[in-house]
Amino acid sequence: NVPKWSDNTIQMLSSFDTINIPEEVSLRPSYPNPFNPSTHVQFTIPSDMNVALKVYDVNGRLIDEIVNSNLARGYYNFNWNAQEFSSGVYFIQLIAGEKQEIQKVVLMK
After folding, report:
1. Single pTM value for the model
2. What's the burial of 30, exposed, middle or buried (CB within 10 Å: 0-12/13-18/19+)?
3. What percent of the chain has pLDDT over 70?
């Protein structure tokens, strides 16, 4: 006496996506740039570390802090909404571990 065949709900996977692990701290170009009123700031970190992402005006004054916390390794995308700030040039600073990178962004209203 043989039981009736059943597939046991096993599902076949057609492909596996691989996830690339970043090898270095990298601040990617913000987009859009120029922007109004918000821009996406992207960066990568290769290991768990304290990360600070800050915005400065052309006079070097700190005007906003997007993130300041311990993050796990990986790819990050933060949105900076500058609706309360005036048109002009701003500098976004990434400090991750011992590495620091700065990029220029332009707010056009």
Report:
1. 0.79
2. buried
3. 83
